[in-house]
Design goal:
5 strands, 134 residues, alpha+beta, 25% strand
Length: 134
């Protein structure tokens, strides 16, 4: 069974190692104090994403999408990410957001976002950068 939940601070202990294992910078918990969601297959957490929302314009930025490296099935990950994104997009739409921006290193995820939800691929040659300040 696939389900999604809202991220809470206790979930940080589950997902922080996913970033470390993938070689990505690990966001500090204080950087995740924004709406976030975790997707599950049965009781296993599979993926997470966070939405940084503007208060002055109806734009949301999806960041920190990450998957559990212990889940080896690409199809399982895909199904759970899809269900999680359905919920995220639905909630942002209900909240009145008109534009959702996001970045990903995964060309497969970008193609799925384009086909399933209508995301426009703005630039496939950009470099994603992150600087964590202490």
């Amino acid at each position: 069974m696939i389900s999604t939940t809202k991220f809470n601070n206790e979930d940080y202990s589950i997902i922080k190692d996913w970033w470390a294992d993938s070689g990505c910078p690990v966001p500090h918990l204080t950087q995740l104090q924004t709406p976030g969601w975790i997707g599950y297959h049965n009781e296993t957490p599979v993926c997470a994403v966070f939405a940084y929302r503007s208060d002055s314009v109806p734009v949301a930025f999806l960041e920190h999408i990450i998957t559990n490296p212990e889940v080896k099935s690409p199809m399982r990950k895909l199904k759970v990410v899809t269900a999680m994104m359905d919920r995220v997009i639905g909630e942002l739409d209900t909240d009145g957001y008109q534009i959702i921006r996001g970045t990903t290193w995964s060309k497969t995820l970008a193609k799925i976002c384009k086909k399933r939800w209508g995301f426009q691929i703005i630039d496939d040659k950009s470099v994603n950068m992150s600087l964590l300040l202490s």
